[in-house]
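Amino acid chain
________________
===
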Amino acid sequence: MTRQLLTGNAAAAWGARLAGVDYIPAFPITPQTEIIETLASWCNNGAMPGRLVMLESEHSMLTAAAAAAATGVRVFTATSSQGLLYAMEMVYTVPGWRVPLVMVNVSRGLASPLTLESDHNDILATRDSGFLEIICASGQEVLDSILLAYRLAEDPRVRLPVIVNMDGFTLSFTREPVELPEPAQAEHFLPPFDPENIRFRASKPISQAVAVLGGGAYSYFRYETHLASLEALTVYDEIAADFGRLFGRHHGVLERYRCDDAELVFFMMGAFATKAKDAVDQLRVAGHKIGLVRLRLLRPYPVSALRAALAGKRAVAVIDQNLSMGKGGVLYTELLSALYGHKEAPPIVASFVGGLGGRDITAEEFYEIAQQLQRAADSGVTPQPRLLFTDTELRQFRKLQSIAVVERNELGGGS
């Protein structure tokens, strides 16, 4: 193995290169464009044999990706935020074709208002589509997860597309040391794609994902996709174990950090979990029995693993970098559903929403969350859901509002 200083985007490009992809339909969007630029450069100079084609939109891009996968080639693509939404019709269509491909999504907040910075509403909008979804926290994990994703997608027991997700800017443009497997090692873990019976052939025409009349047939096909997604839990554990034996890095469906004796737990996903680890270390020094559980496999949802990881804990703080309008944090409600009826479930599960639109979650806020969690555990009373937003931020926002009012009045817009 060699080690290079790479951005998260560059790590994603290396993942595609080491996977030996054949076809890359592409469309640029911030903050994922660096992935496509890197792959285009390699394809152009002969460093990578795959073919990259620019399409006219993300919708066309994903359509081309799925059609190519159906012919039996290994396909990679990438998008972000509004681009993912633009492709949403095909995001829900492609899993029903049961074709394996890998798409990287570089998370960015959704309009409106428009932002270029990161949160998780884009990836969470796809969670019911049938795509399997892996959420990364480091550049190394991005590269490794792409290799894992192809093994998972192409397994005959699964045959579903996979999204590998990373946080925009926070991870996509941050450089960190990444170990690159030797190409022979990567190919040993991920042999060339064998499409078996899914490949379209002119000599043997078939129909795939056709329209059906009547709810019975529709229900059958939809539930079959659901069962394949559930089967992916078992398959993922197998291939993650293979990966660990070969490369010495272990990527489970969850990451558990200092949880064995923890009474309190942070629960979250994405790159900000690395900051939560630092907070856990500092809180441990101060005498708090606290740990972190990070969700890596968003779909299929690892209910049994979560129940085991949180069994017997006194309180859990769910930190969501998303907001479901009219409902709250998505991870919070999904975790409550997973824990419901489990006799060893934590009695306190509290909701905190932060990190929207690229807003930082500071060390002080992690400490404050831990203090609230301790008080809740001691009192037995779950605190109300809370948006992480400081008095200073509120004053700054009020100042901007007052400036806007003055400017509007000067332009004759009235109060």
